[in-house]
Amino acid sequence: MIDAAKFVAASRWTSELDASSATHCAAEIISTWQQRMLNCEPDRYGKNVPIGPGFNETIDLVDYYEKVGYEMKLVGSTADHEFYVALFKAATFNQHHKAIKMQRLIFIADTEVAGRLEKGLGDAAAELSRNWNIIVELAKLD
């Protein structure tokens, strides 16, 4: 799963893009990665899975067999914020999806973002999520 994300990102991503191009490129990378996983095992994965009724939020990819949610963020200026949002999305998902409660959330980001989140408030938030029975893991794209 992570290797597929790394492969897709490496083939398209460059830090030299302007903000608008970076946002567009990031969306294409995430969509390609999601589709690649769905093509492998369409019954196993769900893409852009709604966290619950009445919310306009989704989880990028859910592995229904392993009960793992994946969120990928490539645009650095908002990735830290999106990490905290992802934690609450996972907790809310579990409140509304009792049959497939997420046991793990894997947040995929570049090395710089993941490095910041591995300490300080990011580490504390990941530890706090254990109280919600969700193990948070950071995966580095590069």
Main β-sheet description: 5 strands, mixed
Tally of helical runs: 5
Got a strand count?
5
Give unreliable regions as ranges.
none
SSE sequence, one letter per element: HHEEEHEHHE
- Could you tell me the mean pLDDT? 84
Q: Strands of the biggest beta sheet: in what spatial order? A: 1-2-3-4-5
Query: Helix fraction?
Result: 40-55%
Query: What would you report as the Rg, rounded to the nearest angstrom?
Result: 14 Å
Shape: globular
SSE order and pairing:
Blueprint: H1 2-12, H2 19-40, E1 45-50, E2 58-63, E3 68-72, H3 76-96, E4 104-109, H4 111-117, H5 120-128, E5 135-140
Parallel strand pairs: 3-4, 4-5
Antiparallel strand pairs: 1-2, 2-3
Describe the structure.
The protein is α/β, with parallel strands linked by helices and 142 residues long. It has a five-stranded mixed β-sheet with strand order 1-2-3-4-5, sandwiched between helices. The radius of gyration is 14 Å and the shape is globular. It has five helices and five strands, in the order ααβββαβααβ.
Throw out a few tags for this protein.
single chain, 142 residues, alpha/beta, five-stranded mixed β-sheet, 5 helices
